Amino acid sequence: MRMRRHTGPGLGSIGTAPWGRFARDLGLVALTFVVGYAISAVWITPSASGDDHAVPRVLGMPIEGAKTALANAGFRSRPEGERPSPTTPRGSVLWQDPPPGMVLPPNAVVQLVQSAGPAPVTVPDVVGLALPYAEKVVVAAGIRVGRVDTVRGGGAEAGVVIATRPSPGNGRPRGARIDLVVSGRPAGGQ
User: Fold this and answer.
1) How far apart are CA 138 and CA 145, in angstroms?
2) Where are the alpha helices (DSSP H) in the chain?
3) Residues 161, 178: Cα–Cα separation, whole Å
4) Strand 53-54 and strand 109-115: pairing?
5) Which end of the chain has less Cβ packing within 10 Å, N or C?
6) Distance in angstroms (rounded) separating the CA atoms of residues 37 and 153
7) What angle do CA 113, 119, 125 make, to 5 degrees?
8) Phi (first) and psi of residue 179, to 5 degrees
């Protein structure tokens, strides 16, 4: 007859069965994580193969040069109109979408917005102001004073602006010149 020895909870047996089940469960959790990560990395997430590449920076380039640079990088370009910009020269790329450096598949579309140059400046209404003050207002508006014509008569006191060419409210390019018409001495005056 065979006898088995029964050992109770002592120093040598700290309950190996529960620790073994814990280790097995921990291993299964780790294996599930590794398999799930591998599936998502290979199958679900798009691969970063050698075909995908970054969108080049074309901001500030002339629009035709930007189209060429995008075509050489394997992208298509689509112009999306113009917007005024005080800093970007007219005809240059003001904005691109997607932004530079974004990795895209070949033949993806990059939208380009062209600069229309600085926004036009409105001719200020300086009629009725003395010439020195009118000149300061015109310069502060972002345009320059062109010719100053003096007209005699009209009943206004001398040195007062009576008209502008073009008239107030019209748009002019920043830095353009406008002419001022100033009253001279009244007719018959000395």
Assistant:
1) 7
2) 16-39, 63-72, 131-140
3) 13
4) unpaired
5) N
6) 90
7) 165
8) -95, 145
